[in-house]
Amino acid sequence: MKSALRVLPVVLLASLLSACASDKHTMTEPTDGKVAVCRACYDEISKVRSTQPRTGITTTRTIRTHMCPDCKSELSIYTEGSTLKAKCASCAPEGVDCDRCVPKQEAK
Known about the structure:
The chain is of the alpha+beta class. The protein has 2 helices and 6 strands.
């Protein structure tokens, strides 16, 4: 038992010291999974997210519907299970988790 406790720190130290010495790595672009929605839809989602309590209730219900003046379609904010989601015909037609929504960049 004592020998195993002595060997473990040596193995951990060796694994830390055997890091890659090369700086030529193949890196892939990170995918963050964010969904860009129009500013009006994003603002409505933010309002609901700030007022909704985080509970473990697993129901599906509509919390708010909003007629978006920017994209001219209806935004539905709802819970699916215990996840807050949004669905907009032009911004997020398949529905998306609200915490993955980001505003679209303004045109310059």
